[in-house]
Structures are given as structure tokens and as C-alpha cells.
Amino acid sequence: MLEVMHLTKKYRKTLAVDDVSFSVPDGSIGILLGPNGAGKSTIIKSIAGLLRYDGEIRIQNFPGRSPEAKKVFGYVPEIPAMFDALTVAEHLEYIRRAYQSDITDEETGALLARFELEDKKDKLGNELSKGMMQKVSICCALAVKPKVMLFDEPMVGLDPKAIKELKDVIQELSRDGVTILISTHMLEMVKDIWEVMFVMDKGKILASYTREEAAHRDIDELFFTITEGEKGICKD
Ligand SMILES: Nc1ncnc2c1ncn2[C@@H]1O[C@H](COP(=O)(O)OP(=O)(O)OP(=O)(O)O)[C@@H](O)[C@H]1O
User: Which pLDDT tens digit goes with each residue over 47-83?
Assistant: First the structure.
């Protein structure tokens, strides 16, 4: 379970997130949707403990930024950060040790194969393309064996095969009870997988829906109706 209560974040004079509250139930796939600058990354970074903020965040009932919370989530940042001097395989080993993850060699091998990185495992971080870095970043977050997964625009820069694998992985995690939050403005990429949706603009959540509540409405139709201000279909 992921809970965000009255989250407010200001960068000097910019109010990036304005008193936002929402929760993603255990095992659900939550989507933060919104145009550029809506505040999606700020929310994800706040949950990941990378920013100071006002309000309260709870991850598996642990307070955000506590060591207990940090042990149970995986985070895929918008821009992958690699260690220049570690190989792909060493990145995974680093995560295994840092998180005391029980991921096995077979499992890390399978992850690398799934994202077509098997033949890259001896390459250094600074020898990878941006898409490869993104895939390594996803594998590292999965190697934590997290209870909560945070993805910030995870599909950007991935090839079609990796996008398909990532969507499959997300659905498998959800079936295993992992709680997922994905920030994106790429509606097409999350169309088939979302379960609970939070539509944001200008630092606020304008509307939220479960897939059942949205019934047969198309995600594009919902998004554009809400963000273009036809408030008739919004609910509190
Ligand atoms: N480090 C920062 N310093 C100052 N302002 C920032 C900083 N990071 C973000 N902002 C501002 O906060 C607001 C929200 O930005 P944020 O990156 O959270 O949006 P986003 O919804 O993730 O956008 P995008 O889809 O473009 O990634 C924007 O007005 C942005 O200019």
C-alpha cells in the first residue's frame, strides 16, 4: 500500500505539488497522468525520498524516507543514473548486496535475458546507450524484489520489445501483490495495464478513477475531457 497525504512541494516560488492526497492499494497498478510540468516527477521523487516536502507519505505503512521504507521500494528514475566504472552485472550485484536481496544468479540472468542485456553484462555503465541504461535501471529496481515499485516515465527511450516486456513485468508484479505507481504522459503505453488513474495538472489531482469507475470510457477521452476543463465528469 502506498499512501500520499496532503503532499505539498515548493521549489522556491514554484508550487509544484499542491496538497495532493491519494493511495494505491496493495497489488494495484496506479497511473499518475498529466501534461509536462503537472508535478508527476515531483510526487514520485518525494515518495522515493529524494526531496523535502510537506505532508505525509507511507510506504507499506512505513513513514516515507525512513530506512524501513527505503528497503521495500524499487525506483526507476526518469533519467537513468549509472556507475561509470561498474559493469551491468556489477550493478545488479551492487543492488543485491545493498538491499540484501535474495535474488538468485538464475533470476538476474533471466532478467537480463528478458531485456536483451545478456550480451551487455560485461559492458561498463558509460559504454551503454540511453535505452540500455534505462533497461539496466529497470533490472536494478526489480532486483530489489520490492513491495512497491515507482516508475517515472519508464517507457521513454525503450524499443518496442522492451516496452512489451516492461508491461508484462508490471502485470506480473501486480499479480504477485506488488504495488505500482507509474508517472507518464504517454497514454497509449498504459492503456491496457492501468487499474487506478490519477489525472493531474498544475500540481493538483483533478480526478481519479478505478478501471471499473471509468467503465468503457477510453483513457484518452477521460484525460482530455478532464484536463481541458469539462468538469462534468470529474468526481471528488
Ligand atoms: N529542481 C527544480 N527546481 C525548480 N523547479 C522545479 C524543479 N523540478 C521541477 N520544477 C518545477 O515544478 C513543476 C513540476 O515539475 P515536474 O517535473 O514534477 O512535472 P512533471 O509532471 O513530471 O513534468 P514532465 O512530464 O515534463 O516530466 C514544474 O513547474 C517545474 O518547472
Answer: 999 999 999 999 999 999 999 999 999 999 999 999 9
Judge whether residue 30 has pLDDT over 60. yes
Establish whether residue 41 lines the binding site of ligand 1, counting it when its CB lies within 6 angstroms of any ligand atom.
yes
Q: Is the ipTM, as predicted for this complex, more than 0.95?
A: yes
Ligand 1 site, residue 185, Cβ cutoff 6 A: yes
Which atom of ligand 1 lies nearest, measured to the CA of 185? 25
| Distance from Cα 116 to the centre of ligand 1, integer Å | 32
Spell out the domains of the chain, with CATH numbers in brackets. Answer: 10-81+147-233 (3.40.50.300)
Tell me the per-residue pLDDT of 189-204, one tens digit each, with 9 for 90 and over. Answer: 888 899 999 999 999 9
Contact 96, 41 (CB under 8 A): no
Phi, psi of 129 (to 5 degrees): -75, 170
pLDDT tens digits, residue range 170-226?
999 999 999 999 999 888 888 889 999 999 999 999 999 998 888 777 888 888 888
34 CB near ligand 1 (under 6 Å): yes
